[in-house]
Design a protein that fits this description.
YojJ-like (1, 16 strands, alpha+beta, globular, about 35% helix, 2 domains
Length: about 350
């Protein structure tokens, strides 16, 4: 009887090589490092606890921090061989990540050796994230690679040239282009469409806190109602309605008007964390198009089952929620437990 062992190593290595070459990194040692990180981050745990740090590979941590504008770093190693460093890097640094901390890997000249540690940016929720700053526009002669788990068994490698590949360790079909970012960006735009004065910086803020909260959830449903609505739609009337809506836009405006004081940062942080808690709860979180949180833990009846929106029922609930867009809702957003996203916005978003 024939026996066979199949590895995805060649496919992983060839795609990583192409991606890094296009970013200006022609280095087999760095390719080995990235493929090792991708393989381990697909389902990484320490002492049984799942961990999903972001790893930034660069040529200078000092320059990386200068580019991000603010932050600090903590070195955790002397120089080690780059190609075989993935396991050591995650073992030493992954448990330290969270609360804005990420892992950095600083390559030496020819890439054969590297140093690593952890770094963080600003704790101000209104500030651009490190991802937005250093991966936003290509920087000549300073390539950056970020490796991060999107969800379990899906790891994305993104470079400062704007290119990205998501490696999937499951049976999902291949797709031409990742669209998860645009789904969340459209949600942020829907939740800030009807401000008194259009404010692109607030939309960016909403994008950041929604992205973080949705990424950390185990699947979620979010509804957006028009700001002109005075009541939560009847179909969502079993929601835990907030007597006083959390007005994220007012907090954001105060934060800017007060010149980003410690008090205003704290005020914005607690609201952001509470929104994350709502999104992590069962059921549907309800926002309005003026930057407010109206309620959470709403459930909607679907044609298939009268069950809470969890597991397979979440998909059915999204179908029922989406059917209300244009008839009481201005938007509906869905993320499954395995990371798949879908959304429906009115009009024409």
């Amino acid at each position: 009887m024939a026996e066979k062992s199949i590895s995805f190593r060649a496919h992983l290595q060839s795609n990583t090589t192409d991606l890094l070459t296009n970013a200006g990194i022609e280095c087999t040692h760095t390719v080995r490092l990235v493929t090792g990180l991708v393989s381990m981050l697909a389902a990484y745990t320490e002492e049984g606890t799942p961990l999903s740090p972001s790893v930034f590979i660069c040529n200078s941590i000092s320059d990386l921090l200068k580019m991000s504008g603010v932050g600090e770093h903590v070195p955790l190693s002397a120089a080690v061989d780059t190609g075989g460093a993935a396991s050591r890097i995650l073992k030493f640094a992954a448990p330290l990540c969270g609360g804005g901390w990420s892992i950095y890997v600083e390559r030496e000249g020819d890439g054969r050796r590297c140093k690593f540690g952890v770094f963080c940016g600003s704790n101000d929720p209104s500030s651009l994230t490190v991802d937005e700053v250093v991966l936003g526009e290509p920087i000549k002669d300073f390539p950056i690679v970020r490796v991060a788990q999107n969800v379990v068994n899906k790891v994305e490698v993104r470079t400062s040239t704007g290119s990205a590949v998501e490696f999937r360790f499951n049976d999902d079909v291949d797709i031409e282009m990742l669209n998860n970012r645009s789904q969340v960006a459209n949600l942020a735009a829907a939740a800030s469409r009807d401000l008194d004065t259009p404010d692109a910086s607030f939309t960016g803020f909403m994008d950041r806190i929604l992205s973080s909260s949705i990424r950390d959830s185990h699947g979620t449903l979010i509804a957006v109602v028009p700001r002109s609505s005075t009541e939560i739609p009847a179909a969502l009337s079993d929601a835990v309605k907030l007597d006083t809506p959390i007005n994220l836009y007012e907090r954001y405006k105060l934060h800017m008007e007060e010149d980003k004081t410690a008090v205003s940062v704290s005020r914005l942080q607690v609201a952001s964390k509470l929104l994350s808690g709502f999104i992590n709860s069962d059921g549907i979180t309800i926002l309005d198009s003026g930057g407010q949180v109206l309620g959470y833990r709403a459930f909607i009846k679907s044609a298939d089952a009268d069950n809470p929106a969890t597991g397979g029922a979440r998909t059915r609930a999204y179908a029922a929620l989406s059917a209300l867009v244009g008839n009481g809702l201005s938007g509906a957003f869905f993320r499954s437990q395995d990371g798949r996203m879908d959304s429906n916005f009115f009009p024409g978003m």
